[in-house]
Amino acid sequence: MNCQLCPVVVILLLSSASGNRIWETIYQDLDATYSCFTITNATHEFGCRADFSGNVGLLRVANTSAALDQLLASDNKLPYVVVLPRSQFSVATLRQLEAMTADPNRGDVKGVLLTLPDGSWQPDTFQFSEDDVWPNRVSSFYQPDKNPKEYNYSLHNPWNPAGSGMFKRHWSFPIILLKNESQIRDVFECHSRYNAADAGWPHCAAEMRTFMSAAGNTEVCWRRTQDQYINTKNTVYCMPMGSVNVFGTLLPRGGPAPAVANGATLLLAARADGATMWDALAPAADSAAVGMVALVSVARALAHMPTPQQPRMNVMFMLFSGESFDYIGSDRFVYDMAHDKFPPLAVAEEDEAAGSVTRPPLLHLGDVDTYLELSQLARARQLYLHSDPVSRAADAQVNQKVQQLMQQLTHFGAANNLPLAEVGADTPLPPASLHTLLRANASVPGVVVADHAAAYTNSHYHSVYDVASTVGAEAAAADLVEHLSRLTRTVASAVYATMSGQEPPPVEVDPEWLRGLIECYLQRSNCSLFRGVMDEQLSQKPLREEWQKDVPIPTYVSVAGQLTRHSYLMELTQNMLANATGTTLANVTSADQCADDKDKVYVHRWLLRELENGTLQGYCTRSLVSFSRAVSPAFEIDDYDWASGAHPSWAESQWVTFQLRLFLKPSLGHDVLHLLLGLVVTALATAAVLLLERRADLVFTSPRYEIQS
Q1: 176 by DSSP, 3-state: which?
Q2: If pLDDT is split at 50, 70 and 90, which confidence band does 626 have?
Q3: What's the rounded mean pLDDT across residues 443-454?
Q4: What are 305-308's contacts with CB under 8 Å, separation 24+?
Q5: Which of these, 31, 214, 272, 509, is most buried using a 10 Å CB contact count?
Q6: Count of alpha carbons within 13 angstroms of residue 442, beta-carbon side
């Protein structure tokens, strides 16, 4: 067949083959990792919203107060993506931008870019917290209908005076934090070249794709998700927030000879999470990380001390997850104790024969004899002891136990050169997990150790600026190591004296090991201690690339029951605590040999350490460390009353991807011209096709062959 149009077809095919390169010349992709997302509780929706098809606007840099005022005063009705530096990024500015969008006579803000280049944060020069002035106020023990008005949160000076509430507000546009310095320069260059006052078209524009599926509140989005599963459509709008609680005991609970017959327990706790508007950027250096380091250090010190004779109580170490969101972890802990579900290993399986497995006994809230919580600890070297004045005034026994624990702490603090002071008797309890226990049982004697007396010394609580440099955890971190060494000796001695009734022996603290622990939690997760406590899952190459980085693992809890950054952190912490407090079994050379399905009092773990040559070496640990779910019971109780506020109700929206890219946007006239040209080309192409159809016998000719006889 003689095809006269073949050259045209070849040209079209070649043009389509270069389509990807043409696309790349139109758009420049930027890093959208740090995008504001949507979360919900029983009554509200928080975070950022975005259009389903994406948000597009012209870049408008407002890097000074004058530039911002000029934008706000403009009557230009164009869509904008506003670029803000840290100095202009505030709740007041975002509210002004929302008001501008709501005014039909002014511009429409389609999104906000926060430029925060690496190495230029200098957080010590300002105060900024994304949380409320009273964190977790609705879950406080102090409520108007339960406690005297003098302890009502609304009448007390705010604990978090730097709190802006930015994280727990609803914003009508997406917000993306841009850290890459090269990409930030590209944004400013694109704006200065194409969007200057005297610049004509085209203009530099940005497209943001951060659509969130959840809307309204948790009750609405969770019901929609459940309905979709019932209808087998598997569409997810939101999922419960949470993670796991990691806990362990100093002495074995249960078995043929339990160390403490009556179940009395001193609960030593700390929180294991932080929060910001950006899930991948929640360092929580002082908010959570230092407290985690301190608890693991104290647990290790106690495990290396001689076992006391006839102890009066056991010691349980507890790291609560989800405490940034109405105390999810401690709420689940209290709920499980009340419903005979804690610890999980105490609950027999349905088909388990009686006595076939040795399990620890159940723990109930009444077994908690004394509670000690390690809160924010690093922003000051003078520490303070907090307690609840309401329960102390109502119960003489509670007051006595609190006084005894405080006396032990101040005594051993003085011996270790660690200043500790009790706050005023009329000072309410600051935000802490102890609030959850007191809500369930006001007779729990509790003390909270913190680096503040009245207001937080951490002026970056729950913000992207709560980083290692603000707590002295950079480089050798010698001062922080010394501070936590003194704290470890003080707390370990006080706990030992309280649980045993005996004078504690000297407490040994390895400063090099403690420095390594600080490195893992505050500097970089690709540290030697974490590489020494991997399990089979964390040692897999894809996951190692996820958590082994030169930055700390973010502490935001995210969605429960899935592999998240926080789940990696808690798995490593669980292994670290097991390694620090347990024993390594000799002559065990495989994971199968390490397992013990008949003994649930102890937990056997097959761990892996990375050697200097890069190979992995396995070893078996036997410890009293385990984990429990840190998910609100509200998502599991049938017909739960979401308006009751009995349990946390936080959920995270589902999203597909985050995308940010720059491109040049032509004028409206330019678009109309191209549309008309396209219509003309379409009409000509249609006419050509019709003509070819009618003259096909002339265009496509075939040679004729005669049959020769």
Answers
A1: strand
A2: very high
A3: 96
A4: 305/492, 305/496, 305/504, 305/505, 305/507, 306/505, 307/251, 307/259, 308/496, 308/499, 308/500, 308/502
A5: 272
A6: 14
Share the mean pLDDT of the chain.
Answer: 90
Q: In Å, how far are 43, 330, 410, 458, 653 from 138, measured between CA atoms?
A: 12, 15, 32, 22, 22
Residue 696: the pLDDT is 74
Q: Which of 331, 328, 302, 306 is nearest to 317 (CA)?
A: 302
For residue 444, the 8-state DSSP code is: -
Its CATH architecture, for the domain 242-631, is 3-Layer(aba) Sandwich (3.40)
Main-chain phi, psi angles of 371, to 5 degrees: -125, 130
Q: Please check the confidence at residue 4 and state whether its pLDDT lies above 50.
A: no
Count of other CB atoms within 10 angstroms of residue 622: 17
Question: Rounded to 5, what percent of the chain is helix, strand, coil?
Answer: 35, 20, 45
Q: Is the pLDDT of residue 144 over 90?
A: no
Contact partners, residue 700, CB within 8 Å, separation at least 6: 1, 2, 3, 4
Q: Check the CA dihedral 549-83-168-91 and report its sign.
A: positive
pLDDT-based confidence at residue 233 (cuts at 50, 70, 90): low
- Please give the pLDDT value at position 123: 67
Residues 535, 540: Cα–Cα separation, whole Å: 9
Tokens at residue 329, please? 């972890």
Phi, psi (5° rounding) for residue 206? -130, 145
- pTM, 2 dp: 0.91
Whether the bond into 343 is cis, omega within 30 of 0: yes
Sign, CA dihedral 355-360-362-367, equals positive
Torsion, Cα of 111, 116, 121, 126 (10° steps): -20
DSSP state of 469: G
Pick left, alpha or beta for residue 601 (phi over 0 → left; psi -120 to 50 → alpha; otherwise beta).
alpha
pLDDT tier at 6 (50, 70, 90 boundaries)? very low
Q: What is the pLDDT of residue 704?
A: 52
Residue 9 pLDDT: 42
31/66 Cα distance (integer angstroms): 28
Rounded Cα gap, residues 616 and 390, in angstroms: 54
| Residue 618, beta-bridge partner list | 608
Q: Is 161 helix (H, G, I), strand (E, B) or coil?
A: coil
Q: Is the peptide bond before 633 cis (omega within 30 degrees of 0)?
A: no
Q: What is the pLDDT of residue 21?
A: 58
DSSP 47-114: EE---TT-EEEEEEE--SHHHHHHHHH-----EEEEEEEGGG-SHHHHHHHHHHHH-TTS-EEEEEEE
Domain definitions of the chain by residue range:
28-138+166-216+658-670, 242-631
| Spatial contact of 111 and 142, defined as CB atoms under 8 Å apart | no
CB atoms inside a 10 Å sphere around CB 503: 8
Query: Exposure pattern of 564-602 as b/e (b: 16+ CB <10 Å)?
Result: bbbbbbbbbbbbbbbbbbbeeeeebeebeebeeeeebbb
Contact 268, 255 (CB under 8 A): no
Q: What are phi and psi of 123, to 5 degrees?
A: -65, -20
- Residue 619, number of CB atoms within 10 A of its CB: 18
Q: What are the E-state strand segments in 473-549?
A: none
H, E, C per residue of 365-404:
HHHEEEEEEECCCCCCCCEEEECCHHHHHHCHHHHHHHHH
Q: In which element (H, E) is residue 652 found?
A: strand 651-653
Region class of 134: left (phi > 0), else alpha (psi between -120 and 50), else beta: beta
